[in-house]
Amino acid sequence: MNIKENVERTISGKTIDKAVDDLKKDPEHNLGAMIDKIVGAAEKLPLQSVFKDQLRGIKTLSDNDRPGKHLMINLLNDTDANVLKTLAKDFIVNASWLGVRTQRAVSEKEGFNVPWFMLIDPTEHCNYKCTGCWAGSYQQAKEMSFETFDRVLSEASELGIHFIVISGGEPTCYPRLIDIFTKHKDTAFMFYTNGSLFTEKFVEELRK
After folding, report:
1. Cβ of 98: how many Cβ atoms within 10 Å?
2. How many Cα atoms occupy the beta-carbon half-sphere of 133 within 13 Å?
3. Choice among 94-108, 133-147, 181-195 with the minimum mean pLDDT
């Protein structure tokens, strides 16, 4: 990370922290104004056009008081502030802004297209045997080593990929899933889960 990027990351991080704090105080009244600010700032940043279109769509939801606006308000009310801040930094700053810049530089230099996100299946294990799903009845049930998983995510980060989708099998069957999240703090993760293995302890570890 160069000095310019470090400064950009620091300033944007502090801006996001303040924005989340303001939204958490009174999301119903502050959401519209905050969305307007975000959309205005996004227009000046070198984001992919699809992200700008999505932000405009969110603004339309808010301006027209559609159900999506109330979903956003509920998420702001119900989600831990630090989770919101971390997700916003990883998804907006790392994945959608600075990461895209790195991806474009690597693509131009190396001559291949770097994808915006990556899908990875660290385990084929699943605790269910659902009809029609390969995971529950698949006999091999292979599992990726932590070292390989870690290396792949580190290489993805070097390419500017900071949004990782985890599937499976059932991702929560992977024994070191929390360790991966903890080590790769600059990455936003989304994982598909049946939710059946969630415990209070797991949720608390996930929140941290």
Report:
1. 20
2. 14
3. 133-147
